[in-house]
Design goal:
Length: 261
């Protein structure tokens, strides 16, 4: 916003204590303010939690007004295995905390995007479902959530991304489309939703046969983006190269890479 940018991370000191932080820079990369976030200390001492730091599942988004929203995995439980929760926080442009919420649930992935009204996240409560959650930016309460069922598998480590474009929510999931009669149809499923959670359409872009390699999954549909009226799906390691597929944003095309109808 206005040339400013933000960073979110954590530092670790001896004894297993971790300190999450948020920092704001201006357009000249000069620090404007920095904060140690709540809670100030997380203790990881037992074998079961020694490598389970929340920094690996920490995310942040900002809006056009300079507000920042942070979600981080946290525990103060040093037992084996520790009990984790997620801290959701909002800070205004001056770094003053507006609210903090605690979320306890399976595979919560944190904030992925915001349209200034809602914060959107996508997690995988099971190997074949994706849950999209919209959180109200004003107070952190959940406005709505929707569970999307897939015909194939979704590994917890796979790409799950939310994009906001043209007043719609696009959910991108690296998944296997089990409904397709093919033995290797791993790729990117796009789901278009309204900001109230209604599904408009879903499309699966995948590679198979002569267009794939033995090591295609899970490095296939790596990510995606929206620009103007086009959607881009980016594949990695597709015939040992990076491949970008450009399609119209109206969902009118789907299918096998190189053989679109």
């Amino acid at each position: 916003t206005s040339g400013n940018f933000y960073g979110c991370g954590f530092t670790r000191r001896s004894g297993g204590n971790e300190y999450p932080y948020l920092v704001k820079y201006n357009s000249s990369s000069v620090v404007q303010w920095s904060l140690v976030l709540q809670p100030q200390v997380a203790t990881h001492t037992a074998p079961g939690v020694s490598n389970a730091n929340f920094g690996s599942q920490q995310s942040m988004v900002s809006d056009s007004s300079g507000n920042t929203y942070v979600s981080l995995r946290h525990t103060t439980d040093s037992s084996d295995r520790g009990v984790f929760s997620y801290k959701l926080m909002k800070f205004n442009a001056s770094g003053v905390q507006q609210w903090v919420r605690v979320v306890v649930g399976p595979q919560y992935s944190g904030f992925s995007a915001t349209d200034g009204t809602y914060l959107y996240s996508a997690d995988a409560p099971s190997s074949s479902t994706i849950r999209v959650v919209a959180t109200d930016v004003s107070d952190g309460t959940i406005a709505w959530e929707r569970t999307l069922a897939f015909g194939g598998d979704i590994l917890n480590a796979n790409i799950r991304k939310i994009l906001i474009a043209g007043g719609y929510v696009y959910v991108l999931v690296n998944a296997t489309n089990g409904a397709t009669n093919d033995t290797n149809n791993d790729g990117m499923t796009w789901v278009k939703m309204t900001t109230s959670g209604t599904v408009e359409w879903n499309r699966h872009i995948y590679a198979s046969g002569d267009f794939s390699t033995d090591y295609f999954y899970p490095n296939g549909a790596y990510t995606g983006s929206v620009s103007s009226d086009k959607m881009y799906t980016i594949f990695s390691d597709l015939e040992s190269a990076v491949t970008v597929v450009k399609l119209p944003l109206d969902g009118s095309k789907t299918g096998l890479v190189g053989k679109f109808p």
